[in-house]
Amino acid sequence: MNRLENSLKWMRSRMAGTGKIAIAVPFIMLFGFQKKEQRIHSKQPGTIKTIVIDAGHGGKDPGCHGSSAHEKTVCLAMALELGRKIKEAYPEIKVVFTRDKDVFVELDDRAKIANKANADLFICIHANSASPTAYGTETYVLGLHKTDAQAKIADRENSTIYLEADKGEKYKDFDMSPDAIIARQLQLSVFLDQSIIFAGKLQDEFKAIGRYNRGVKQAGFLVLYKTTMPSVLIETGFLTNKDEEKFLADEEGQKKMAGSMFIAFEKYKAGLEGVDYKTRGAQDEVADKPAVEKNDLKDKVVFRVQIETSETKIASNSSRFKKHEVFEYQQDKLYKYTIGEFIDDFNAANTYKNELRQKEFPNAFVVAFQNGERISLEKAIKLAEK
């Protein structure tokens, strides 16, 4: 039995059914066990530029199955549909698939694809297997399992390594003990927080289309352990349940699931950027201090693009504005700076925002004013359309 198998066995025996355990993590364990390709990127959560979508299993590895549907097939269909929707709505985002056809990809390579792409988000899509009465969706982040059921799911998904060319030999010294997982969680603490937030949004959206919410859970999945960005593994349902198998094998069911993932992605992305996911613009806020507008703009809706926020006043000729003429207003005891002026034209402002994001200000977003006061984008768009 190799080190990985021993680690998983130890996790099951020590952690099943327990709460949190305080473990002192040696410094050498925290920082010494990572290979070069696993080192943490120095990026922080912010604008999403690259997303990696991983369809579980594939090729000679069919995954679990029901009476006729195979995990590898339904997962690929949902992954491709999710990627299509993101590409269509956000052409500026690079979408990478670990596989876009029925081929076998090793677990280690799936993580390497995400790390090499310097991805901002990793979504791993799977289907579940248990008794015929088990049902519902659950989303996992890296962590210590608390039940035997969670351990079994991780074991099943990790068992893919034994189908690899070396029969899992390269993982023989890989440490998945509780100590090692806690060390990895500490390394990825910022990303883990974001993973949990995204996982929660996924489960909310699955519930919104009538799926049973089994919750956000933690387990020692190899593919999550090796990725260095916010990462989740979605168990979309149980193929061993005849009703769920029918739903997941059906094209409409797959589109519904991918649609829920897409909405969760939009809400997660909007939360990172501080914008309203419906309009992809600024969140609904009311200005503390009215901005000063020109007299000839009375009752007009003025759209601008916000590029900076500061606790202290910034000089108008600051290099932070990259030679743009700025319009300043105050809100929430902060100084906020915008550029551009689009009268009753949200589309033009939104186009300008996209250009600025690509070139100079990756976190730019649209704001709106009327008679010198900040108003919500939803209200502004309705007024501008009249």
Description:
The chain is an alpha/beta fold and 386 residues long. 38% of the residues lie in helices and 20% in strands. It has helices at residues 3-15, 27-32, 71-89, 107-116, 148-158, 178-187, 189-208, 222-225, 242-249, 251-273, 346-359, 377-385; strands at residues 50-55, 94-97, 121-128, 137-142, 213-219, 231-238, 275-276, 281-282, 301-310, 327-331, 334-343, 365-370, 373-375. Strands 2-1-3-6-4-5 form a six-stranded mixed β-sheet, sandwiched between helices. The chain has a five-stranded antiparallel β-sheet with strand order 10-11-9-12-13. The chain has a two-stranded antiparallel sheet with strand order 7-8. It is elongated. Mean pLDDT is 77; it is low at 1-45 and 282-292.
Helix fraction, binned, reads: 25-40%
Structural class of the helix and strand makeup?
alpha/beta
Order of helices and strands: HHEHEHEEHHHEHEHHEEEEEHEEH
Structure summary, number of beta strands:
13
Sheet with the most strands, sense and barrel status: 6 strands, mixed
Separation, N- and C-terminal Cα atoms:
72 Å
The global form is elongated
Trace the largest sheet across and list its strands: 2-1-3-6-4-5
Low-confidence stretches: 1-45, 282-292
